[in-house]
């Protein structure tokens, strides 16, 4: 038996701890949509400035 083996209560506590601190899932689709929107806005502003 290892020095640091946990009983069932200890394992539950550790898994609960890590579950709380796990970062949110990275949503690639939302991120790409956000970048695309920002890019299009920037391009539109540049086009407006050059046409004036």
What does it look like?
The protein has 52 residues and is mainly α. 73% of the residues lie in helices and 0% in strands. It has 2 helices and no strands. The longest helix is centred in the C-terminal third of the chain and has 24 residues. The radius of gyration is 24 Å and the shape is rod-shaped. The model has no long low-confidence stretch (mean pLDDT 87).
What general outline do the C-alpha atoms trace? Answer: rod-shaped
Percent strand: under 5%
Question: How would you characterize the largest beta sheet?
Answer: none
Report helical residue fraction.
over 70%
Write the layout of secondary structure elements.
Elements: H1 8-21, H2 28-51
Summarize, please.
The chain is built from two helices and no strands. By secondary structure, the protein is an all-alpha fold. The chain has helices at residues 8-21, 28-51.
